[in-house]
Amino acid sequence: MKYTHAEVPTKKRIALVAHDNKKQELIEWACAHPLLKNHTLFATGSTGTLLERALDYPIEKFLSGPLGGDQQIGANIATGGIDVLIFFWDPFEPMPHDPDVKALLRIASVWNVPVACNVTTANYLISSPLINESYSREIPDYQNYMSGRV
Ligand SMILES: O=C(CO)COP(=O)(O)O
């Protein structure tokens, strides 16, 4: 695989997602970090509705996770529309949409997007100076990949 770079803007596009047993944790984390409001926030349906209420800040909501929201966020990562993923997934509960969860985590890895799956990592991420700076992110060179296939 050949790689190229994408410029990540100063104002990040941050996706916030939590499974039901982790929603309260994510809400408390988001409320404790008002700096999030310097960025554009996205979320899956139920997570987004709860966060919007708690933060009193607009959140662009996708479908609910089990109905395709995880896949929508994954598609946005692949097309360069999301720069950071905060995904508090539940390690104790099997989900009907486990394949979607795995696919979202995989595609974030493919496109070298930073992912926080727990509060500690989210704290490290949000306190990184890079969250308020532009950043050159290494990504797969799609043109090169395609030219080798067709
Ligand atoms: O299921 C989810 C992530 O896999 C989250 O979806 P909701 O935010 O709609 O609950």
Automatic annotation (TrEMBL):
One Pfam assignment: MGS
Gene Ontology biological-process entries: methylglyoxal biosynthetic process
PROSITE patterns in the record: METHYLGLYOXAL_SYNTH, MGS
Active site: 70 (proton donor/acceptor)
Keyword Acetylation: no
Gene Ontology terms, MF aspect: methylglyoxal synthase activity
EC numbers on record: 4.2.3.3
Domain of life: Bacteria
GO cellular component, one term: cytosol
Catalytic activity: dihydroxyacetone phosphate = methylglyoxal + phosphate
Family in the record: Belongs to the methylglyoxal synthase family.
Function according to Swiss-Prot or TrEMBL: Catalyzes the formation of methylglyoxal from dihydroxyacetone phosphate.
Protein name as annotated: Methylglyoxal synthase
Species name: Marinibactrum halimedae
